[in-house]
Design goal:
- By secondary structure, this protein is an alpha/beta fold.
- Helix content is 38%, strand content 20%.
- The protein contains eleven helices and 14 strands.
- It has helices at residues 13-25, 72-87, 101-106, 128-140, 160-171, 190-200, 230-252, 266-278, 301-309, 322-328, 334-342; strands at residues 4-7, 36-41, 47-54, 57-63, 93-96, 110-115, 119-123, 148-153, 175-180, 207-211, 256-260, 285-289, 293-294, 297-298.
- The strands form three sheets. It has a seven-stranded mixed beta sheet with strand order 1-2-3-4-5-7-6, sandwiched between helices. It has a five-stranded parallel beta sheet with strand order 10-9-8-11-12, sandwiched between helices. A two-stranded antiparallel ribbon has the order 13-14.
- Strand 3 and strand 4 form a beta hairpin.
- It is globular, with a radius of gyration of 22 Å.
Length: 349
Amino acid sequence: MEYAIRTVRPEDRALNAMVDGLLRREGIRRDANLDYTCALLDEEGRIAATGSCFQNTLRCFAVDRDHQGEGLMNQLAAHLIRVQADRGNLHLFVYTKCETARFFRDLGFHPVAEAPGDVSFLENRRTGFSRYLRTLEVESGPQKGGVVGAVVMNANPFTLGHRYLAELAAAQCGVLHLFVVSEDASVVPFAVRRRLVREGTAHLDNVVLHETGPYLISSATFPSYFLRDEDAVIRAHAALDLEVFGKIASSLGIARRYVGEERSSHVTALYNETLGRRLPELGVECRVVPRLEADGKPVSAGAVRQAIHDGRLEDIRPLVPETTWRYFHSPEAGPVLDAIRREETVIHY
């Protein structure tokens, strides 16, 4: 049978309904983060398979059970890889069920990490992750004495709470590796977040700043289409992140990871719970640091975003370092301020 590949456009209700129907039949939900979807249609216009992209990842593959074994996944993957190449994305990633990882390995993808029973994470460069580890080692420079610690933060934006966490961790470590989530899924762009973290920790001479690259991503874009419910998504994300972090820790000799106490975000609380259980199994101590408070309330990036959203820019003064304060009062911050004010909700679940 001959199959035709069709791009699934948002306005094509009939084709979108067929995609959703196929995903449901195969026990898959359409991922919330997709920027391209295609469908394979048979000679009678019925959907046989579908696949999608989001940024530099391939997602949401499904083949109708009546058409499995016909090589349709190969056709889908080849098409999506061409689409990505046309976009300039040559370094690609796949998140998939563990039981389907072998298929992508046959297509030239290489394992990065796996959360057993939930998610496999693969890339199409055999030495991609090992090169990233070597970059981290070069950035770290010569080994120094004392405990080697780590903090991973999004810093959306960098607050006094983030600075407090970094200062406390740096005071207890010989070297502190501070990772800033590189993915641009936050309202404050990565380039700005990285700069504010660098400026806000410039007084700490034992901090080594790193980018997470594409290997540690935010909960906002972690694929969820093949997991049963929201809590399962959060735990799978944390488990996969920890498998990646464990390899980073081994490469850099990290013995302790610091995390901020979480009182309000369900996502972060579950994430921290997984960290507290799994990190010791990886040979890394987990230290939970109580939140810094201002006027009896926890200092958080969410509180900063809420104040900006509500038109109370001056209220962020006791919540952020001078460098962050100056940024939000500069012309450069205009588009970011506008974006925060347009958001329906700025407090994460």
